[in-house]
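Researcher: Go.
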Amino acid sequence: MATVKLVNVNKVYDGGVHAVHDFSIDIQDKEFIVFVGPSGCGKSTTLRMIAGLEEISYGDLIIDGKVMNAAAPKDRDIAMVFQSYALYPQMTVYKNMAYALKLRKVPKDEIDKRVREAAKILKLTPYLDRKPRALSGGQRQRVALGRSIVRRPKVFLMDEPLSNLDAKLRVAMRSEIVRIHEEVGATTIYVTHDQIEAMTMASRIVVMKDGFIQQIGEPNELYRNPANMFVAGFIGTPAMNFLHGEVAKGYFVIDGTGEKIKLTAEQKKLLKNYEGKRLVYGIRPENLVFEQSEKFETFKESSFNMKTVMIELLGDIINVHGAVGNGKAILKMSSKYSVKEKDLFKVAIDTEYSRFFNETTTKAITPDYCEYEETDVTASLDEDNVTIIEQKQGVISKTVDAVKSKISAFKSKKAPEKAENQQDGNSNAPQEQNFDKPDKQ
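Model: Structure:
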């Protein structure tokens, strides 16, 4: 297969919209990389730049050691699977999968061999003579995957391929795609907004927000050691709890209640520069201990009061949404315990899983980043709206940005209508037919 390397890749649209900022990653052969983040974070734009469907404004795309910025999509040896199945309705499954090879004038014997091999991997052999309308949604998605597999490309790109499926089928297809990836051994880049898909499928995850990479790492690393409040709040269901307050004489004092959570010796050492300063105490819902649990006594000195606001019963577990002083928190616990709305109860923190964040920069406080730092706060600091720390640009990047800004300003003054048309046209990037996608029927 192939290695893929992106070096300070940027996407700037006409009008100065900077969609992707200094995106850099080194993807090894046969890795399964997932780009995840909320809508508008730049993940699909990055994928389309790799595919050649979007022009790279500046930076380098390197595939197998060769710079591919100027290469046409068909010359990159990449196959892309889209959200839409994009199958030819008048063709059988066999012909849909064979069509790309037929266009490349591959010998018939070789086409038949590849199609039947892919059908076996995808468990589509009994359906080769059927047309798409006689298939389920999951089977159609597998046909779309098969059309890519038969080409034997260097890299597979998948842009939210499961978003059209129902919840149960999505779960089944996640494991199918992982199995197919392992059998084919392909380098795969997968885009999704669903953090559960990212956690269950990826060998490494790239978390993005507002065009910036927030963190790159293995799923468990991101879950256990998030780099900032955004990653902590985005990865994990329910999201991590954030308690705001300040450090005072070996305790964390919660805003709005004055309740004190005792810090361990290790935590005191980590937070020595935060004495008398504000910070955010992070703890995941499953690491809170209910007062009726046998573990509660162990962590009693790190307990606080919660008042029930809402209860989610999910069979074997309960998610209790509660109020904590001026803030809120979620307790995830066994359904064997009983809690009613408006109940006041205590929960303790399993301190092994405590995480701390600088309140203004939103960065995780770690042994490597433990000096107190303060920046101006211009937005609320919850998990959905946190301060994003921009990566520093080099001299060349800053110069290019300045030039592009001046050119854009000149165009808008001289020909506003033309500039507007260009901007509108730019959002309609070249479509998928570069990758053998059929025209819409």
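Model: The mean pLDDT is 85.
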